[in-house]
Amino acid sequence: MGQSADLPSAHAVSWLLRMNRLHGPDDELTTVRNFAVALSAHRGGTPVTPSRISRWETAQAAVGTADIVGYEQVLGISAGHLVTVADLVRRPASSPPAAPMCQVQELLERAIGGGYLHCTEWMKISAALTTPTHALMRRAEWQVLVNRLLVETSVARGWRYVPRFTALEHLGAHPEAARPIVESVDALLRDHYTQVLIDPVALLSRIPFTQASTVLYRHLTDPCGERVLHATLIGWGLRSASCRLSTDVRQRLADVAGAVLTDRTVSAATRSAAADLIAALRPLGGLTLAAPVRRQLDVEFRAMVATRSRVPEDTAGLVVGNLVNAVSSGLRVVHDEDPVLPHVLAAALFSSSVERKVNAGLLLAATPLKALVADALARTLGERTAMGTAVAEGMVDLLGVTGDHRHRGALETVLADPQTPDGVAARAAMSLGHLPGRTPSALWLSALDRCTASAVQRAVLYGAGMTADVDLLDIVAAAPERDSSVREGARWWRREELRDQVSMQLGEISRP
User: For residue 383, what are the CA distances in angstroms to 388, 431, 432?
Assistant: First the structure.
């Protein structure tokens, strides 16, 4: 199986568990026998045999949610982290056990009243509200609940984003919740100054009602700007993977994507998203593509369409091989050769599928290997060796998922370098928004002054907004010399509900 091939979900989950046991902080638990004893004690004496653990960790037997919780507790991992990531890669996600109605009511009161909710508590709410005996909610309460969860999801960091998005996805399958979700996302897409688009569009792509398809198609064919066009192309790629589309619908989507693909006035990123949508639709058959579209696919996007990778396979193999060697050299103990890590790294760095790329990054970040990967990425970026734009973009993206406050300097250097391509600079700014710590306001302002590309300017506002740099946002919002879209973008991040949620999320990552 080549590095570009999909990794079966069972193998991804088994690798997640094995890496956390082998490379966790307790060397005593690296042996299957000792871990079996510890896990049995956690289960109140119910025996877990070493052979059973071996079968879980080699994908020869399915592992249940309760067993993954056991891994979290025995290894001292944040509650819900491994379960969340395991559910992510083996979709559809499992629902948590039904909570008592008194607990559900208390959670709903906090959700609607603005109280703090841990990310995993949203899953309990969604499970309770989508059962036949769910708590009754007025439409106004649905709207408050949905709007709050949309905002939280948009500014959530790392794995804590996943339970919130999954809760919205579960609610979207409920007719009473689907309507306010679709209406809220529709309003976001019609707002020229909305700063976060991919998450709401990805959610819309998951809702199994005609209203969601109608809104998604309308914004694809009549977007309020290229950013919405780019987002909805990605959204339809996701929807084509999760919903059965008729031949007529697929042909109409291919026609729209083909027109974008051959339009040289559109950015390379949006044309690439159009090519990826066609690549997702083509295997289903029955498509007729115009000759110019076929030529463009065969010439400019041939490798990406064939491999679903943004870089050639030999380049990907070289980059991934160097990272694997760096990780291996940093391990305290090297166990057997790891055939899964190259697949995870290749997908996290270079997959043209947004979903696959994000899932692989979060899978990697849920293991003790993430620090070694982040160190290697920061070191490579710091060496400023010649690398293609797509390679640099992949590295910067993954550093934003696996890094910590120690790696901000590497990303700030990339952002501050006047030779950095706009696409790489934009991704560096966004990745800075995902890491703990703060970037000096002067560096943000310098990037705004130097980089006139709208994508970079929006990314700088994203980085500042996600790290609650209110002083910088206030300065930009009040600067008459700046473009109105930049000023309005800064004001968007200063909205009260966003400001409060960003502060709450920053507090959440400091909790266990």
Answer: 14, 19, 19
Residues above pLDDT 90, as percent of the chain? 63
For residue 470, what are the contacts with CB-CB under 8 A and spacing of at least 6?
494, 499
Q: How far is it between the farthest Cα atoms of the chain?
A: 69
Q: Provide the sign of the torsion angle of the four alpha carbons 5, 11, 17, 22, taken in this order.
A: negative
Whether 437 and 445 have beta carbons less than 8 Å apart is answered as no
Can you say whether the dihedral through the CA atoms of 424, 426, 428, 430 is positive or negative? negative
Query: What DSSP assignment string belongs to 433-480?
Result: TTSSS---HHHHHHHHHH---HHHHHHHHHHHHHTT-HHHHHHHHT-T
Residue 335: DSSP 8-state: -
Per the listing, tokens 């969860």 go with: 149
For residue 110, give both structure tokens.
């906090």
DSSP 138: -
The per-residue pLDDT for range 202-249, each reduced to its tens digit, is 999 999 899 999 999 999 999 999 999 999 999 999 998 878 888 999
pLDDT at position 1, please? 36
Which amino acid type is present at position 267?
S
Burial of 248 (0-12, 13-18, 19+ CB in 10 A): exposed
Burial (CB < 10 A; 0-12, 13-18, 19+), residue 290, is: middle
Alpha-carbon distance of 46 to 56, in angstroms, equals 17
- 10 Å CB burial of residue 400 (0-12, 13-18, 19+) is buried
